[in-house]
Amino acid sequence: MRKPTNRSVHTVICLSALVLSLSALLIGCSKGGDADTSATQKSQKASDRKLYIYNWSYYTPDEVIAQFEKEYDCDVVLDYFASNEEMFAKLMAGGGQGYDIIFPSGDYVSIMKTLGMLEPIDLEKITNASNISDLVLSKATYDPDMKYSVPYFMGAAGIAVNKSMVKDYSHDWNIFGDTRLAGRMCMMDDMREVIGDALAYLGYSVNTVDPQQLEEARRLINDRWKPNLVKFDAEGFAKSFASGEFWVVQGYAEAVFEELSEDKWSNVDFFLPQDGGPMYIDSMCIPKGAKHIDLAHEFINFIHRPEIYAQFLDRFHFPASVNPAAEQFTTTKPFYTVEMLTNYELKEDLGPNLETYNKIWETIRYIG
To answer: In this structure, are 269 and 353 located in the same domain?
Structure first.
């Protein structure tokens, strides 16, 4: 995996005397010299072609990026985020200026679209959008016509259990209420995921705004789950699970298995509780003010070539939930199947009720 890259700003100071001197030299250059200069400028221009991407951790295969860079004669610069809230806050604060593609989940696509934070997608430039499944588009109610977003992956967070250390456990979200595992468990620092899991366990919609249902979920988390947790962590949970610090974590399969050598995968039970829970569709969007819009469209179209998308699926052992045409090119077994998502519900834009969730989350997320 590529590590986050911090972009630096290069300042070029031109001295007037030097400019005059170079100008005089250029006037006296031969025709061959002009050709050499043109070639140099062309080379510099090619090397300046950059695409700035802001994506989730554990979500961008190196080999796919390398192929795109070679085919389109450009450099891809990757930065990573661990939650939608982190990504959104950075863009709202102006720290995300300069990105060409971002990967928000559906509810945040809706929020950012409403706030005018996204450039429209030109589907005529993305012919491979025809490979995206009707199932995904039917669930992408926030943007079913792909006017501002193109689906990247549909999936869900689940639970990883270290079978070497834990022998007897429930296969539902209430595993986090097991006092025998106190001090060895972690949930993500992700408001919609944690609250959504509690709501699903209680039999409610992950998008409910009913005060009584939300209060029940808050009490379940604070009174039964949180006392057994070391912390809420959306970024380091997989490393801590791999090191043996945590025996049970809520998280994404790709993050958990990325941190483990393949010979240790058999020691992990990763499952999606049949209680249901929050499901996500992460999409590729072009943020307002992007400087490389044409190249961004090329990247989105490139990703959805079936043989390219298959490399993405293989890299992270994903099911072909978004681009079924890619499945014929895959060579690995996914960590979970599309069928396991049956009871899962897409997180929706909560509108003004998001503030209610924020207030509840502030009573949950800090562990003393």
So the answer is: yes
Residue 218 to residue 204: CA distance in whole angstroms: 13
Calculate the CA 262 to chain-centre distance: 23
186 has a pLDDT exceeding 80: yes
Do the domain assignments include residue 4?
no
Average of per-residue pLDDT across 333-351: 91
In angstroms, rounded to a whole number, what is the distance separating the alpha carbons of residues 191 and 361? 6
Question: Which residues span the domain enclosing 262?
Answer: 156-278+349-362
Query: Which of 36-40, 57-61, 130-134 shows the highest mean pLDDT?
Result: 130-134
Residues 196 and 310 in one domain: no
- Specify the range with the lowest mean pLDDT, choosing from 47-51, 282-286, 361-365: 47-51
CA–CA gap between residue 209 and residue 215 (Å, rounded): 10
- How many whole angstroms separate alpha carbon 21 and alpha carbon 360? 67
Closest by Cα among 10, 350, 358, 19 to 218: 358
Q: Does residue 168 share a domain with residue 79?
A: no
Asked if residue 142 and residue 123 are part of one domain, the reply reads yes
Average pLDDT over residues 90-95: 91
What is the tally of structural domains in the chain?
2
Q: Where are the beta strands (DSSP E) in the chain?
A: 50-56, 75-81, 101-102, 150-156, 158-162, 185-187, 229-232, 248-251, 268-271, 277-284, 344-346
The residues, any chain, with a CB within 8 Å of residue 61's CB and separated by 6 or more, are: 311, 312, 315, 316
Q: pTM for the complete prediction? A: 0.77
Residue 158 sits at φ, ψ, to 5 deg, of -135, -150
Residues 312 and 168 in one domain: no
Residue whose C-alpha is closest to residue 1's, from 70, 68, 84, 80: 80
Closest-CA residue to 260 (of 155, 186, 269, 280): 269
pLDDT digits (tens, 9 = 90+) for 278-317: 999 999 999 999 999 999 999 999 999 999 999 999 999 9
Whether 33 is covered by a domain: the verdict is no
